[in-house]
Amino acid sequence: MAFLEVKSLCVAFGPLDALKDVSVSVEAGQIIAVLGANGSGKTTLLRSISGLNAPRSGSVVFDGIDLSTVAPHDLIKRGVSHVPEGRRVFPTLTVEENLRLGVFGVRGGQAGRAFPRSRDMCFELFPILKERRRQFAGTLSGGEQQMLAIARGLVSKPRLLLLDEPSLGLAPIVVKDIFRAIRQIHADEGVSILLVEQNAKQALSLSSHAYILELGKVAVEGKSEDLAKDERVREAYLGGKALQERQAEKK
Are residues 105 and 73 in contact, defined by beta-carbon separation less than 8 angstroms? Predict the structure, then answer.
């Protein structure tokens, strides 16, 4: 069994099926990308893994543990950290206070005792946060808030990091810094990462395997390098040859 094994997951909101028989797996040490348009079910997938959305059927198993038996606030003790879409920092708390909340509930354990060291690791990864450590999070730029959200997810020293749209709404130069940091996190810490992302080019270059969701179903999956060359994927997500030709005809 894979490190994270999502099997035949179905999630509904009233009459609306958000996920339909979705299966995704992540091996230890892998970066796996989940791509898709808005409304395809990407965020619902991560929220279901975290226990924030209850599935109608299917299972989520992490390191041999059925996560349906684990309360969402206890996932951090199991080594799962979720960085949600939209940053979700605490605006009236300082950068340092936001980071301390990243080990809330595990203070008595190894992660809590190691907070100063893990905090300093995050400051090395995002030097601007060290400069802003006593600044209220609500006064940070969008890019700085995203860095803080990722850092807060890292201070508990997770084994699995769930990243939801880390580049959303950021300037290209900031996006480059965010993906550099994700690559460094993986290389230095060996963290397994499930990355939900609309920036398909960056996500495919970073990951080893990818899933593409459409209308709540897995439409395509495969090695990231193969999907990056697939004309169907290029046309839909990367601006492939056929799309370029149609755009040229309209000019």
Answer: yes
Q: What are the domain boundaries of the chain?
A: 1-79+192-251
Q: Indicate the CATH number of 1-79+192-251 among 3.40.50.300, 3.40.1080.10, 3.30.230.10, 3.30.300.180.
A: 3.40.50.300
Tens digit of pLDDT for each residue in 70-80?
Answer: 988 889 888 99
- How crowded is residue 191: how many other Cβ atoms within 10 Å of its Cβ? 21
Check the CA dihedral 115-117-121-127 and report its sign: positive
What is the average pLDDT across 106-130? 80
Specify which residues 221 forms β-bridges with. Answer: 211
Q: Quick count: other Cβ atoms within 10 Å of Cβ 80?
A: 27
- pLDDT at residue number 249: 46
- Interatomic CA distance for residues 175 and 93, integer angstroms: 25
How many Å apart are CA 143 and CA 155, to the nearest integer? 19
Pairing type for strands 192-196 and 160-164 reads: parallel
